[in-house]
Structure formats: structure tokens, C-alpha cells
Amino acid sequence: MWMSVVVVVLLSLVVLALYLKTVRDIQQEEKEEAMARTERFRQHIQSREWAGA
Fold it and tell me: Within 10 A of 31 (CB to CB), how many other CB atoms are there?
């Protein structure tokens, strides 16, 4: 009885850790993509400024 409870608790902790790691990875990817979009936008604005000069 106790052994099965321990196994279930350990498996739950492993699943929780994997879930949190996945969420963190997704947030990091979203942050990197937002930074890349910002950089592309800055380059676009700079190219328009140079074209108008």
C-alpha cells in the first residue's frame, strides 16, 4: 500500500517537473521570438530612414 503511494507521488513529481520545464521553455522561445521581431522592426525602420535620406 505505502509503496504504491510513494510510486504515485514520485511519478507525479516527475510529471510536474517536466510540465514546468516545458512551460519555461515555451516562455523562453516566445521571449526570443519577440526580441527577434523587435530587431527586425528596428532594421525595417532604419532602412526606411536611410531610403528617405
Answer: 10
Domain boundaries, the chain: 26-53
Q: State the residue for C-alpha cell 528596428.
A: 42
Higher-scoring residue by pLDDT: 13, 51: 13
pLDDT tier at 32 (50, 70, 90 boundaries)? very high
Q: How far, CA to CA in Å, does 27 sit from each of 13, 20, 21, 37, 42? A: 21, 11, 10, 15, 23
